[in-house]
Design a protein that fits this description.
mainly alpha
Length: 63
């Protein structure tokens, strides 16, 4: 994927999230993730992506 392709895809993702609104963001991202996981069809690659995506993000404190 070229930088231009990445920009186009990211822009579409952002516009879609804006159109759906904040209350629907989590559901959309969960559905998108499941579709992407199915399309990638490589458990090791998906597990690596999950690790990469969570890197540096704060963990939620236990309740």
């Amino acid at each position: 994927m070229t930088d231009s392709d990445l920009d186009i895809v990211y822009t579409r993702l952002c516009k879609t999230l804006t159109q759906l609104g904040e209350p629907n963001t989590s559901l959309f991202l969960a559905r998108f993730a499941m579709l992407a996981i199915d399309k990638i069809d490589d458990p090791a690659a998906v597990l690596s992506l999950i690790g990469d995506a969570s890197e540096g993000m704060p963990e939620q404190a236990p309740e």
